[in-house]
Design brief:
Elements: H1 2-15, E1 20-30, H2 39-42, E2 54-58, E3 61-67, H3 74-87, E4 90-92, E5 98-103, E6 120-122, E7 124-127, E8 130-133, H4 139-161, H5 166-182
Length: about 190
């Protein structure tokens, strides 16, 4: 646990020095080939060329994180991911691959390599159920969560009107509303 805290502190101190950071989210799909090994098993050998860049993997989602000051540019590291996918008989789903560039709001000058070819660059994107915006605001995510919870509260109202006991309503409220409000909250 102590090592994780140190990594977070280092990352936090580096974050304050950055003017921008690029994140590319990639979705892999399996090809119908002689290699039946699922992505979840072979993903462990996928790593970034640079020690500064990070790759985060969850299920079939892979997220490449590239800070402004790096020794390997995003396009080179992304080509590495493409080559790894080809080697392991996987196909990148480029239609679902998106890029977002986070930058401080008042920074006037910063180095940014050209965008990746055939990859859409967005101002906000959803990553593991959380909506991130390039300006570091969370208002899109909050609006989305409030809208979801309002719909779910209406369902609870309908269930109460149908005569569902309060104890069962409480269980359902915890399952569909409180759990949604608490999802990714500690992060």
């Amino acid at each position: 646990m102590r090592q994780v805290a140190r990594d977070d502190e280092v990352w936090g101190s580096q974050w304050h020095q950055l003017d921008r950071i690029r994140i590319t989210q990639t979705i892999f799909t399996s090809l119908q080939t002689d290699n039946p090994t699922p992505y979840i098993i072979i993903k462990n050998d996928l790593c970034s060329i640079s020690a500064i860049n990070d790759i985060f993997k969850y299920a079939d989602d892979t997220t490449l994180l590239v800070p402004q000051h790096t020794d390997v540019e995003l396009d080179v590291d992304f080509q590495n991911v493409k080559a790894w996918a080809a080697t392991n008989c996987l196909k990148l789903n480029l239609s679902k691959t998106k890029e977002i560039v986070f930058k401080r709001p008042r920074v006037q000058y910063f180095h940014m390599s050209p965008p990746l070819v055939d990859i859409e660059q967005l101002d906000c994107c959803k990553l593991l159920g959380v909506i991130f915006q390039s300006n570091f605001k969370m208002d899109s995510h909050i609006q989305f969560i409030l809208s979801e919870c309002a719909h779910r509260l209406y369902l609870l109202k309908l269930l109460r009107h149908q005569g569902l006991p309060d104890a069962q309503l409480s269980v359902i409220a915890n399952a569909v509303i409180v759990s949604r409000l608490l999802y990714a909250l500690p992060a």
